[in-house]
Design a protein that fits this description.
The chain is of the alpha+beta class. Helix content is 44%, strand content 13%. It has a six-stranded mixed beta sheet. The chain has a two-stranded parallel ribbon with strand order 1-2. It has a two-stranded antiparallel ribbon with strand order 5-6. β5 and β6 form a beta hairpin. The longest helix has 18 residues. The radius of gyration is 23 Å and the shape is globular. It starts with 20 loop residues before the first helix and ends in a 5-residue tail after the last helix. 27% of the residues are buried. The mean pLDDT is 91. The site of iron/sulfur cluster has 13 residues, from α2 and α13.
Length: 351
């Protein structure tokens, strides 16, 4: 008869220097599967994320950051894409120039469009070459939906930066990615003056919630001449959250608390928390809300729970419990690492 024993996780009760919202999401998000956290932060596996995360983190947020520092949007766009996709940047530019002609040639599936495509085989060749580059270099860490393509991301981004800057940027911003925009004399800080400097620029703010040390990087903090504060996160997605969800958002609650503890925001100031949604239709949709009065105490509760479980090494995979649409495993960024590690933990004697 086969003997069933309980799997034993390796000791994991390591103190963390601080907790971030990214760690909290790894702990709580996947249908309550804190094994994601264990794989990522205890064992050090890298996850595989959706291609929209690549677009958001490596392209849009960097363009926006440069633009706040006074770099024209089109120049910021060129510099960021050059850094992200240098070997095919000229192909992307050539493809986009042809793409504009293609769109102008007539509607899809018309004779006029068909004629244009027949006359311009380079258009399809460039697209193939661009996606070949994507398959070679951008699929190890990111998964691409069938409908997503690198060329389409580039087109979307070109159209985005053609908008007037005031449609993309928040007025009266003074802190971007945790770093001040202006020096003590009120002059704009030229953080990206050196064209070769494409490194990520951010500064973490640290504080405590409950008695837990936390860290984070607020995307944008603005204060208008009347003293009203706006704390915003840049989001690249087509379905904005509602106002109530924004009010309750832990990440914005943490941003506000870190700003208060750093004396960037004072208790008597009126604050709005918000998401700036960069949508697929090239609209920037802001959603603003007053902070929830319950947000901070709930965050402290969640952090204390997480810290206790992390110290106890109390992690559990939820694989096999939920089914159908409720099963978090098919879309889990740690699915490959999870399979590998579960096999190792449950069958320690197999090589
Ligand atoms: S694949 Fe499923 S069980 Fe494994 S870490 Fe992800 S959500 Fe948890």
């Amino acid at each position: 008869m086969q003997e069933h024993t309980m799997a034993v996780l390796p000791p994991s009760s390591q103190s963390r220097d601080y907790y971030s919202m990214t760690q909290m999401r790894a702990f709580f998000s996947k249908g309550g599967c804190n094994f994601v956290y264990f794989l990522r932060y205890v064992l050090g596996y890298k996850g595989t994320y959706s291609s929209s995360a690549w677009l958001s983190v490596h392209i849009v947020r960097q363009i926006v950051q440069m633009a706040y520092h006074g770099i024209p949007l089109t120049e910021a766009h060129a510099r960021v894409w050059q850094a992200a996709c240098g070997p095919i940047f000229t192909q992307l530019q050539a493809w986009y120039a042809l793409d504009r002609e293609c769109q102008a040639s007539g509607r899809a599936n018309t004779k006029a469009r068909e004629h244009w495509l027949g006359e311009h085989p380079t258009y399809a060749e460039l697209a193939t070459s661009i996606e070949a580059y994507r398959n070679e270099f951008l699929t190890q860490d990111y998964t691409w939906a069938k409908s997503a393509s690198l060329a389409a991301y580039y087109r979307w981004c070109c159209e985005l930066v053609a908008l007037p800057a005031e449609r993309l940027l928040l007025p009266h911003a003074f802190l971007i990615m945790g770093q001040p925009l202006y020096d003590a004399g009120g002059a704009l800080i030229e953080r990206f003056a050196d064209e070769c400097d494409t490194s990520e620029h951010y500064t973490m703010l640290f504080g405590t919630v409950g008695n837990i040390r936390v860290g984070g990087v607020p995307d944008i903090v603005a204060i208008d001449p009347q003293g009203e504060v706006r704390i915003a996160r840049v989001k690249v997605m087509s379905h904005p959250m509602g106002q109530q969800d924004v009010a309750e958002d832990d990440q914005l609650t943490l941003d506000l608390e870190l700003c208060r503890q750093a004396r960037i925001v004072f208790p008597d100031q009126h604050v709005l928390l918000g998401h700036l949604y960069f949508t697929s239709t090239n609209e920037v949709v802001p959603v603003w809300a007053e902070p929830s009065p319950d947000g901070l105490s709930r965050l402290a509760w969640q952090l204390a729970h997480m810290d206790r479980r992390v110290h106890e090494g109390d992690f559990l995979p939820v694989r096999g419990i939920a089914t159908g649409a409720f099963n978090p495993c098919p879309s889990c960024e740690m699915a490959a690492a999870c399979r590998e590690e579960l096999r190792r933990i449950q069958h320690p004697n197999q090589s």
